Model the fold of this input.
Amino acid sequence: MRDPERRGRGGARHSWATVSRASALGIVVLVLAGCAGSPGSTAGTEPPGTPSETAATSVATAPATPTAAAPTPDVSPAPKRQESITVGNDERVVDVFVPSLPAGDKAPLLLLLHANGESPYVMANESRAGELAAREGVIVALPPAREHRWIVMVSPGDPITPSTDVAYVVGLIDRLAAELPIDMDRVFVAGFSMGAVTSERIGCQFADHVAAVALNAGAPWSDECSPARPLPILVMHGTADSTFRIALAGEVVSRWRAADGCRGEPVVSQLSDIATSELDDDCSGGVSVQFVRYEGSGHRWFANPDATEVLWQFFEGVGKR
Done:
């Protein structure tokens, strides 16, 4: 089946063998990117300022076919900084886009987490993080996973141990807030693939640190999820994803509907010719759970409508519904 989302912008997307929650952690295991390569793949460290290519070179890439993306205003990207930031004893180089802000104003913070086998550089290009920062006045930070892969997923039945990646991302929030004018009531985390898995784990374990999370082509990080409070969550997934099957996205949505105490049936609407939204907004604490299905789409950062625009619209509505 032709993937209606396949396109040329933002770098090639690779796929790996179908992953279940049990097998994805065969090695045990704020916007975070996911995994274009295998959760077990490793890649070299990206020097500051240097583009990095996906590490999984042995996996074939499907040919690109154009498809219409949701139109977005053209703006000049916000300036990007590359800062070496240490959390505990963990030092990593973080890409940060900081827009121009009126004196005294505080900005939302969006942490974007990249896919395994990729880098903040790839994620920034794919999501157009700099343009989003400039247009919406949001500070966007893209931390790297250790050696380009997030170690966060736990197989069913295995003991849950702390994740150094989760500890770094959560600690990064306070480090950035100490230097930048961040509104701590509007801290958001989003990711692609294993970055999305990492985002879900942060939502489950550190709901008191973030205002909402979003998953693009992700999966449950484990069988457990006990958020400290109701938390808004957005899940976007392609029905033809062979890396994380859409049934896994359904598991994420179901458990968050339960955790957030959502009642009644979701409101269904059409976002594009291939994207359908199911929105639960009758949930405890006034939070919402949204599930966007991309019909026929595979494992990628979605384009029709653009995943960046969908997640930012969701985040903007937090506390306003």
Remarks:
- The chain has a mean pLDDT of 84.
- The first strand starts at residue 80 and ends at 87.
- Residues 110 and 188 are 5 Å apart (CA to CA).
- The chain has six helices and ten strands.
